[in-house]
Amino acid sequence: MPILDLPRAPETGFLAQDEIAVIAAHEHLTMQEAIKRGADMMREPWGHAALRQMVWDMLCIARRRAEESEIARLDDLYRRSCLHYACPHDRRTSPTRQIHPFPYDGAQ
Asked: What are the start and end residues of every segment in region (Disordered) (predicted)?
């Protein structure tokens, strides 16, 4: 489900519109609610890990549905979120992912 032409979120400062869209889709929120949730989340020690996990969850859903354009978009977003929000703390473990799927230094 591609989300295009999203409003910029000045209230969150550093969250990009595609990150806010993931929060909205993952948490079943409106864009305005996702802006607030994202801003609140980023103030928490676990906020970076939570955003990365939301992107990862949405990427797994796209893979199960074989939505190629969504997979490519979310794969790129996940790589960017791992670089931008690099706090290694993860809130939960994944049964399908034992280690981090991408290196933090940007190498691919």
From this structure: 89-108
